[in-house]
C-alpha cells in the first residue's frame, strides 16, 4: 500500500510538471509601450540635451539675492504668483539699520539747527548785553577820569594835599578803565559782526556730510525690503520666515549649498529651452538664422516645435543638468536658446529636462 501511494504521488507530480511547462511556454502578447521613444524628426539632425527655463532677455531665470544680511520677517508672495516690478517679495529684519538711520537723521537735523543759529547771529539779546557792557565801561572810564582830574588839580594846588601814591593810583585806574572800554567795545563789534564766515562754511559741510550719511542709511534701509526686479512669476521661494539670508543666498540643509533666496521667471506661456550642442557637432549646424529644432519631453509622447532665438557665442565646459552647482565633465558645449512654440494643452515648467533635435546641414 505504501509503494502504491508513492507511485501515485510521483505520477501526480509528473503531470503537474507537464502542465506547468505548458503554461509557462505559452507566448504572452507584449504590452504596448507607455510612450514612443523620441526619434530624430530630421533626415540629418543633431541631438542636444536641453533644459526648460523662462523666456528672459538674458535667457535665464532671475535669481534674487539680498544685498544685506538678517533673518526674514515676512514673505509676501507664494510660488506661482504673478508679480509686477517693484512689488514686495519679502522683508528682512531692519531694526538695527532703522535705528541707525534715525540717529543719523537726528544728527543732521541738529547740525542744520546749529547752522541756522550761526547764520542768524548776532542774537538781539546778546547784542543788547554787549552794548550795555560798553555803556558800563564808558561810565567807569568817566568816573576814573573825574577822579584823576580832581586828584591832579589838588596836587597842582598843593603837592602836600595829595600824596604821589594816591595820584598814581588814580592814573592807573584811569588806564584800566580806558583799556576795559576798548576791550568791551571790540567785543561789541565782534558780536555785532555775527558768525565767522569760515565757521559757517565748516558747519555747512558738516550738515551736508550728515545729510548724505542719513540718505545713505535710508537707501540701505530700503534694501531690507526685497522687491521684484521685473514683471514675472515667482518660481521658487527658498527662504522661510525666520531663516537667515545673506548676499550669498540661503543655506539649503539638504544639498548643503547656498541657494538663491528666490527665483523668478516669465509667465508660464513664455518659456524657452537652453540646449547644449557638443563641440564636435557644432560644424554640422546650419546658418543660425535657418535653425530648426524640435523638443521631446522625456518619458512622454509630448513634443513641441522650437523657434530659434540666439546662440551664446562662447563654448564652455558642459554643466551636468542633474546638479548645475557642482558637477562638470570634460566636454565643451555651445549653448543655443530656442523659444517654445507652446501648443494648446502643453504643460511645461522651468527646470524640466528635454531632448532636442536640431536640423543639421
Radius of gyration: 47 Å
Order of helix and strand elements from N to C terminus: HEEEEEHHHHEEEEEEEEEEEE
State the separation between the terminal residues, measured CA to CA: 86 Å
Average pLDDT reading: 85
Beta strands, count: 17
CATH superfamily of the largest domain: Efflux pump adaptor protein, beta barrel domain
Biggest sheet layout: 6 strands, antiparallel, barrel
Number of helices: 5
Order the strands across the largest sheet as they lie in space: 1-12-16-14-13-17
Q: What top-tier CATH class of the largest domain fits best?
A: Mainly Beta
Specify the overall morphology: rod-shaped
SS-based class:
alpha+beta
Number of separate structural domains: 4
Second rung of CATH, namely the architecture of the largest domain: Beta Barrel
Contiguous runs where pLDDT drops below 50 for at least 5 residues = none
Question: What topology emerges from the helices and strands here?
Answer:
Blueprint: H1 2-25, E1 45-54, E2 62-64, E3 70-75, E4 82-83, E5 88-92, H2 95-120, H3 124-157, H4 164-193, H5 197-222, E6 225-227, E7 232-237, E8 244-245, E9 250-252, E10 257-259, E11 262-265, E12 271-278, E13 292-297, E14 303-311, E15 316-319, E16 328-340, E17 353-359
Antiparallel strand pairs: 1-12, 1-17, 2-11, 3-5, 3-8, 4-7, 5-6, 7-11, 9-10, 12-16, 13-14, 13-17, 14-16, 15-16
Helix pairs in contact: 2-5, 3-4
